[in-house]
Write a structure and sequence with these properties.
The chain has 179 residues and is an alpha+beta fold. It is built from 5 helices and 5 strands. It has 2 domains: 80 residues, no CATH class; 79 residues, Alpha-Beta Plaits (2-Layer Sandwich), CATH 3.30.70. Strand 4, helix 5 and strand 5 form a beta-alpha-beta unit.
Length: 179
């Protein structure tokens, strides 16, 4: 969602800036040559005349109004859903609020998991509700690798003063030993 918001914000900004430049050009052109008739770029008098003839009950007007309202609602929902989902941490005092990003939590868990000798590689994703670890162990590490990785992650989460403890999911794959 945030990526879509990062793309839409400049596009909407450029559209508003373009409309602003167009209005400035039209105002300057109208002040330089008063009574010139049509606008410089946009035929304002023709648009004004056709809009005077259009009633609110004519066929395209309600459809356009509903479309603009739906588009506005979608943009508001997109903005609300694209907020950061920080992980709350208990502060040193009740009046102090502390947060960290899910990326930092994932890095901490990843470092802890990768320090194990039987782990060849690991990738971690984290949110405030879940920590997912995908570990690769050397061949011969056995089924106890998942339990070992889970224990390491649980121990780290016990050390951290997290406000809500995330759920931990661990998946393990085997990697062949280098020759």
């Amino acid at each position: 969602m945030r990526v879509l918001l990062r793309v839409l914000a400049p596009l909407l900004g450029l559209a508003v800036a373009l409309v602003g430049v167009l209005v400035v050009l039209e105002v300057v052109a109208a002040s330089v040559r008063p009574g010139g008739g049509d606008g410089l770029v946009v035929p304002w008098p023709d648009w004004f005349a056709s809009l005077e003839q259009t009633a609110w009950t004519d066929a395209p007007v309600p459809g356009i109004a509903i479309g603009v309202a739906v588009l506005g609602l979608l943009l508001v929902l997109l903005g609300l859903l694209a907020r950061r989902h920080d992980v709350r941490v208990d502060g040193p005092a009740p009046e102090i609020s502390v947060t960290t990003s899910p990326r930092v939590l994932a890095r901490l868990v990843g470092r802890r998991v990768r320090t194990a000798e039987d782990v060849a590689a690991a990738s971690v994703t984290a949110s405030r509700r879940r920590v997912s670890v995908a570990a690769e162990g050397w061949s011969g590490a056995g089924p106890e690798l998942a339990d070992s990785v889970r224990a390491r992650v649980e121990a780290l989460l016990d050390e951290m003063p997290l406000h809500h403890r995330p759920r931990v999911t661990v998946t393990v794959q085997e990697r062949r030993m280098p020759r």
